[in-house]
User: What shape does this take?
Amino acid sequence: MTWRRKNMLQKKGKFYITTTIPYVNARPHAGHALEYAQADALARYYRLAGKDVFFLTGTDENSLKNYQAAKEGGISTKNLVDRNAEIFKDLAEKLNISFDDFIRTTEARHIETAKKIWLAAKDKIYKKKYRGLYCVGCEMFYKESELVDGLCPDHKIKPEIVEEENYFFKLSDYQCQLEKIIESDEMEIVPAVRKNEALSFIKLGLEDFSISRLAERGDGWGIEVPGDPGQRMYVWFDALTNYLSAEKYWPADVHCLGKGVLRFHAVYWPVMLLAAGLALPKKLFVHGYLTVGGQKMSKSLGNVVDPFDLIERYGADAVRYYLLREVSPFEDADITEEKFKEAYNANLANGLGNLVSRVMKMSEQYLDNPVDISSTKPMDDVNKPLENFEFNRAMFSMWSYMKDIDGMIQEEKPFELVKRDKKSAQKRVMYYVKELARIAKHLRPFMPDTSEKILEAIKANKMPESLFPRKE
RNA sequence: CGCGGGGAAGUGUAACGGUUGCACGGGAGGCUCAUAACCUCCAGGUAGGUGGUUCAAUUCCACCCCCCGCAACCA
Assistant: This one.
């Protein structure tokens, strides 16, 4: 039994990981790809480590925003979400995301779950009159502070004071309990900054929140509140329950989410689960956002980075590479075409791609048989960071190993040695190949296709086609 | 005075109470197995500002300046 094998056996058991489910009123952008890539690296890693992994992703379709977007586009809401959900799924597939299930919140199985949770939490739900400033243009409520000169910021019209009766959730009952849960890491929030953010928010005091809206406001779109056809569930209440759709794996080991939705996952979600008598997720991993030239990605700014375009021109693994290595897992990071290309050329073309070529060329020429790579030692400085969501560090370590091999080849000059002492040269090349295999194996969760190509080349003892051609 | 995070070579970042390290980019040499790739060397930071603690501060403290998140309800 090899070292690696032993390591694997220590990691038995289930591992349930999720991404958030994006609402589908627009096309996916690079930020969605980031979350996919991160979650996928973890899913693949634990799968390789022998865990029974369940990786869930999907789409959030019951939002009023979808209804509005469809209305604007002049198509039915169902039509819009069907079409857009397909695009998100397509992105996940093109990025080689190894999800085990793709849940859409308009599916019957999800609707059933959402209703079940509602009923299970019924003791903490009550009906209350709600009064607010409602903009008919946006079809939503605004807070006084959100208005510009007392007008809706989008439509520049005066919101009406509207009163309606909604269901509320008794969030206030959970103040102390929730604080303890987060403080003690019973539900761990990574990184610590986000844990503090959640805690300071909770400490401000939790107020009950509305978990339903009038059905008529979206022409009936959304999930019906059990026993009250006039009401639809607040989209977050319904959306969060998507994580329960694979019940045999609950609780989740890791929820991956963006910083923008921390509150829903750190506050509403655990409390909903408590109310329903269910276990809490073990960890929330909160990533930052991608910026473009330091600015927020937004349709109005017209700076949205299209992940499909990048995949098409550079390949899925190159995109995964950028998102995992060049992007800080916890903070905002910039993505621009220029930076992408620079990183691609420096680390994929010149770095990994070239190393594979030079090593495999020598292997092909000097060695009569493929090198045995069945057992390779694990790289703790890759695996440990990965387990801590430090994708960039993990990859940095791998690239250091590559640098080492490049340096060794330069110093040992096997291409010269082979003329004088073939045996010694062969020995050196075998070592490089083995090291390359070791890197390739660790690369699997990050860049699965590339990893496979390298391992196949080694098994065939043949220099492969250029893995990452330089881009000018 | 709402809460929080951050200011370091052109860019992105690490560690750290005691020669600022790394990567990319730039420059010079070397090598030829390799994708003009690779290796070596060089340039470039008064570490946002001011003051304090200390034998010693980029690192600790205070204040100021500047950026950026979040500020609860229909993603």
About this structure: Chain A has a mean pLDDT of 88. The longest strand of chain A covers residues 125-135.
